[in-house]
Design a protein that fits this description.
Two copies of one chain form a homodimer. With 331 residues, chain A is α+β, with helices and mostly antiparallel strands. Chain A contains eleven helices and 14 strands. Chain A folds into two domains: 8-144, PurM-like, N-terminal domain (60s Ribosomal Protein L30, Chain: A, 2-Layer Sandwich); 159-320, Alpha-Beta Complex (Phosphoribosyl-aminoimidazole Synthetase, Chain A, domain 2), CATH 3.90.650.
Chain lengths: 331, 331
């Protein structure tokens, strides 16, 4: 514990975080709490997720991407639930050795995403820690009353859709840890950089939130691997999914890796950090979803069907793949 | 990082935290997010605060008190802002060595306070950490639209009131660290235990929230020491406070300590973890406040006045006390 005048914390907050608190209810971070007036007729959707050095990011990761990644993990949950971002609280634990330039870059990254996703800082707290850097975020979104898209409402006969591409971040983190892999995987620089970037800075699908809300029967964000997360959705909905592995959307880089190392299909399907959305919907809703998604530029791929039963089966050549570990866990 | 089936985290959550998620919008912690319908005509008040082992609590502190303390720190903010608790999100970072019985006791403590303060768990996340145990909480309360009590609205002529007693926790943490102090301070066991308990488990003044909202001109919770916190309130309100040190309410135990060690007045006035409320109000509001507070059993003490100027002055014998460090900081 340390005793000090308020200057150290207050000065840092004033300099780097107050400019991020653009919401009037944040009171310039100069009060004990924030106040928001929820949009009339709306529910608030609440989620919390955070990052810890050595667990969710690596010591050498650029500070600019760390806060952004923490925020985007939460934005991804809001997107999958069909919610429009309202704002967030940030709890930051910093070792004494963290430099002011680190904090400046961290906050600078957040500033970009606050503007990009229209999700201002509402408040939070800052502490010194004897442990690793940690950033916890609680984020809030709005949906029309009763409109949050659930995990537990998929129905037999529904189509299964996943956004973007799957597995890139799981390859990206391997590349970050072992730079020799790029050569063994015969990746050119651009491909290796693209995979690494997907790990450093996810692209949450908030542009699709309204389309998901209007058309999906159920949805969740893919953060712990497609296989495990779809398994959770099936379990919550008391249904099964039959997924055609050949249809799971992969990036050109991931295809290149698989060509030389076909066993990595398990890493792609069970690795974490995709921050895509997996959603189910009645077949009749597909045209509406595709139309609504057109302007967003986000790819939607039909990968299978919901059927009666329990669990997600990933089928290839008429057989279900067996995974050693179905889901990625930071725990 | 670790790969695992979802069982470890899911089993812990199911066993110890799902029973705490009594709010229907928590969906039994089985979705990505919670949804709440704000009470009509109300604003939501949002605050975040957390505890880290070795910073906000000591390694030997009972697990039962750790989660409760983290929640009560947030409840204290809601109380000072005049808000009624709605619920909270919990982000828990646990080292691998933490035992299941630790988690059971931690959650058991939270369960008691969830019921006591009617503030259910809405969601959150759990991660392993290579660092110390850390619990971050984001808590939500409701006030009638525009009704959040601010720091920045005290006026010259207002009376300054503080709840309960000040400085006990600052003595309590000293006793926790140096058990020989009880003898030097000539405290009997009951007194020492009372001071320690104030540090382990604050008593936030949520019973007074409505009275504060109806009568206070400004308020904040006293978490970083009365001197520093009142200084922040004065700064935000662009006023000064003149406080009569002899009128600052102290417990019998704190009086006993001061009798032998008068210099500790600085510790009492600048130490942290009081979780009382300091509030200002027009003199005409005093009878209403006292009437509203009567049924709560919380003591209200008039300790001074708001005047023109800047900063909080603690007067004794016609002179302002000079503090080495005005405010306690965990940063």
């Amino acid at each position: 514990m340390s005793k000090s005048t308020e200057s150290a914390e207050q000065r840092l907050i004033g300099r780097y975080f107050r400019p991020l608190a653009t919401h009037p209810g944040a009171f310039g971070l100069a009060d004990d709490a924030a106040a928001i007036t929820p949009p009339p007729g709306c529910d608030l959707v609440l989620t919390a997720d955070g990052v810890i050095a050595g667990v969710h990011f690596l010591p050498g990761d650029p500070p600019e991407s760390i806060g952004r990644k923490a925020l985007r993990m939460n934005l991804s949950d809001l997107a999958a639930k069909g919610a429009k971002p309202v704002g967030f609280l940030l709890s930051l634990a910093l070792p004494a050795r963290v430099s002011e330039s680190w904090i400046a870059e961290f906050a600078g990254g957040l500033a970009k995403d606050i503007e990009r996703y229209d999700c201002p800082l509402l408040g939070g707290d800052t502490d010194h820690t004897p442990g690793p850097i940690a950033a916890s975020i609680a984020a809030f979104g709005a949906v029309p009353h009763g409109g949050m898209v659930r995990r537990s409402t998929a129905k037999a006969g529904d189509v299964v859709i996943v956004t973007g591409t799957v597995g890139d971040a799981a390859l990206g983190v391997k590349l970050r840890r072992d730079s020799g892999l790029a050569k063994r995987w015969r990746l050119n620089k651009a491909m290796a950089a693209q995979l690494t970037q997907r790990y450093l800075l996810p692209e949450p699908r908030n542009a699709l939130a309204k389309a998901v809300r209007l058309h999906a029967s159920a949805a969740m964000d893919v953060s712990d691997g497609l296989a495990g997360d779809l398994g959770k959705l099936c379990h919550a909905s008391k249904v099964a999914a039959e997924i055609d592995v050949e249809r799971v959307p992969l990036s050109v880089a991931a295809h290149a890796v698989l060509a030389g190392a076909p066993k990595l299909i398990e890493t792609l399907l069970t690795g974490g950090d995709d921050y895509e959305i997996v959603l189910t919907l009645a077949p009749g809703e597909l045209p509406g979803l595709r139309e609504a998604a057109k302007s967003t530029g986000v790819a939607l791929t039909e990968i299978g069907r919901i059927v009666k039963g329990d669990g997600a089966r990933f089928m290839r050549g008429g057989k279900a793949l067996a995974f050693k570990q179905a889901a990625y866990s930071h725990f």
